[in-house]
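Below sits my pick:
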Amino acid sequence: MGAVVGTLTLQTKQRRPSRDNADDDFEMTVVCHRPEGLDKLEAQTNFNKRELQVLYRGFKNECPSGAVNEDTFKQIYSQFFPHGDASTYAHYLFNAFDTGHTGSIKFEDFVTALSILLRGSVTEKLQWTFNLYDINRDGYINKEEMMDIVRAIYDMMGKFTYPVLKTDAPKQHVDAFFQKMDKNRDGVVTLDEFILSCQEDENIMRSLQLFENVI
């Protein structure tokens, strides 16, 4: 989850002077999509108007059209992992953000997910993470899905990790995941099992709090 939040929030840097009229921040000369008004987004997320302004400037600078397709998303995300191949993990992450399955991420999609990851409750954060891992959206995480996610993470981190990863590291990671999470040993992890297991793990709970004050 740290990789998700840390890289995405770096896109919110302000590059232009602020304007007096908040609504002006939502005007674009060439747009394919116009986001919801500030008041509506403030009600739907855990961000105030000022924070939404900063987030929108960063989003607009990267995506002047008002929406991001998967190829552009991969290009942006890969900048933060120059020694690895982030394309597969970015694909899974893109699908998690694209909740409407439209093939693009709009500002509303971006800020809603970021609100959960940064300011959501523990349950909301874990539900979002579960949905990221549940690749086929059937309500369960199976070993094949988890192996795909773990391999994507290792590919993203590249060959320069320390200590050097063994070739069987992904399988060991997945086996440990299921040993901890699959409470009834039926070969899949449900949302309830995932949330319960994460709440029992102090390291996971600490990691969920790392980025609460990042904006």
